[in-house]
Amino acid sequence: MFELAEDRERLLPLLLLADEDETVVCSYIDEGELFAIRDGDQDIGVLLLTAEGNVVEIKNLALDEEHQGKGLGREAVEFAKRRARELGAERLVVGTADAARDTVAFHEHVGFRRTGIRAGFFDAYPTEIWIDGVKARDMVMFEMEL
Ligand SMILES: CC(C)(COP(=O)(O)OP(=O)(O)OC[C@H]1O[C@@H](n2cnc3c(N)ncnc32)[C@H](O)[C@@H]1OP(=O)(O)O)[C@@H](O)C(=O)NCCC(=O)NCCS
């Protein structure tokens, strides 16, 4: 179900679901390990993991709309935990826009705890990001011990 992707460009539309600025996504699309989340021969989601020292970061996690809310996001986080442990990491981290209330709730629900705020992170984006009528400005950082 989680397949290491060689052709990364093919997954761009899915990566843009979690991070809507194409310039930003393209700046990291070749980093780390990019997994296609597959249902048969169909790409239904993406998971991009990067490693630095003893920390693995979920850089991007997205499922297409049809496959959201069915437990696959939780499965992807479990997969990320296993993979991060294999890579020798001690912590798994992820960041999301403060304005993305659903995504913040999802991360708390699957076991992450807030560790801080990167103030003004989204102010540096080339285009403004609006989520449910709220302008994204800060990035909420989460982590879990592995
Ligand atoms: C965010 C996303 C990855 C979550 O995946 P998902 O498959 O929809 O979530 P799941 O169904 O696995 O939910 C996992 C748990 O979180 C809970 N949860 C999800 N959204 C929630 C919310 N808004 N409030 C409270 N709990 C929530 C679920 O109830 C579920 O709990 P349970 O396992 O105890 O039943 C997915 O919705 C998505 O791809 N969204 C668009 C892209 C995006 O915003 N990505 C995040 C960037 S980091």
What does this structure look like?
The chain is of the alpha+beta class. The protein has a single domain (2-145), classed as Aminopeptidase (3-Layer(aba) Sandwich), CATH 3.40.630. It is built from four helices and nine strands; from the N terminus they run βααβββαβαββββ. It has helices at residues 12-18, 22-28, 72-86, 101-109, and strands at residues 2-4, 33-39, 42-52, 55-63, 91-97, 113-118, 130-131, 134-135, 139-145. The strands form two sheets. A seven-stranded mixed sheet has the order 1-2-3-4-5-9-6, with helices on both faces. It has a two-stranded antiparallel ribbon with strand order 7-8. It binds coenzyme A (COA). Coenzyme A (COA) binds at residues 17-18, 61-63, 68-74, 94, 96, 102-103, 105-106, 109-110. Residues 17-18, 61-63, 68-74, 94, 96, 102-103, 105-106, 109-110 line the site of coenzyme A.
Question: Could you name the key traits of this structure?
Answer:
single chain, 146 residues, alpha+beta, Aminopeptidase, seven-stranded mixed sheet, 4 helices, globular, binds coenzyme A
Specify the CATH homologous superfamily.
Gcn5-related N-acetyltransferase (GNAT)
Going by helix content, strand content and strand pairing, the class is alpha+beta
Kindly report the spatial arrangement of strands forming the biggest sheet: 1-2-3-4-5-9-6
Euclidean distance between termini CA atoms: 22 Å
Order of helices and strands: EHHEEEHEHEEEE
CA-based gyration radius: 14 Å
CATH class: Alpha Beta
CATH topology: Aminopeptidase
Report strand %: 35-45%
Number of strands: 9
* Annotated CATH architecture: 3-Layer(aba) Sandwich
Spans of at least 5 consecutive residues whose pLDDT stays below 50 are none
Number of helices: 4
> What is the arithmetic mean of pLDDT?
96
Helix content: 25-40%
Count of discrete domains: 1
The biggest beta sheet is recorded as:
7 strands, mixed
Shape: globular
Q: What small molecules does this complex bind?
A: coenzyme A
